[in-house]
Design a protein that fits this description.
The protein has 9 helices and 7 strands; from the N terminus they run H-E-H-H-H-E-H-E-H-H-H-E-H-E-E-E. With 245 residues, it is α/β, with parallel strands linked by helices. The chain is globular and about 50 Å long. The two termini are 34 Å apart.
Length: 245
Amino acid sequence: MAQSIFEFMDGLMSAVVIFRHGSYVKGPVRAKYPDDESFIAANYSEREDPSLFVLDDSGIARAREQGGKFATAGIEPRMIFTTNQGRGPDTAIRFSEGFHGVSDQWLPVTYVPATRYPTYDHDMLLGWLRENGIKDRFVPEWFNGKIPGLISSDTPRSLVGRFNGFIEDQLRLCGVAIVASHFELVLLAHNTWVKGKEIGEFDENWFPSTNAGVLIAQRHEGKFIAADFDSSLEMVEEPRMIRLI
């Protein structure tokens, strides 16, 4: 029987729960483009305003359900950190709504630049998609150094540094922090925290699902666990034991 993430959070000192955003509305913007490749390139390069991409009904319902589960379990996050990119903050707000629906308390939500997904080079991404098809493999391939220049805002090392540095800072504080983020950051957390991989070693066949993510928790002084969880907030496998220096 699958174990809930809450079983691993009992008696913890600190934890960060990193979610990929929920499913989101694409239709009105997608209609402007002749094919999926050009739409994806415009979306990921932010030629289209990210605020246009808010959660769809399914994404809203699942985020609210997850927030309600936290309240039912008696776990009150001290903060929800998120991006300024449509589907990220919408996920955070809906999570807070779900928590409020059960507990009558609102969770605070704040924007942190470290949680933003990176900005892609439009022409490089469009070329890659048209050559290789619509596959998510370009993200781990970029982390592994196979597509230099695909992302204009970061290098693999700078993205890992800014995100994992923020996560480490949060783990030094007491309590639970939620991060409502994006595909690239959950993929990063899975590879570096759960699997212990370095840049250049990322699994190119693993991809995070919407509303799923990674739990990193401190159970004892200096001793941490990291594990993937699904959108039902159940652990995918036994957690990995890690130690922060």
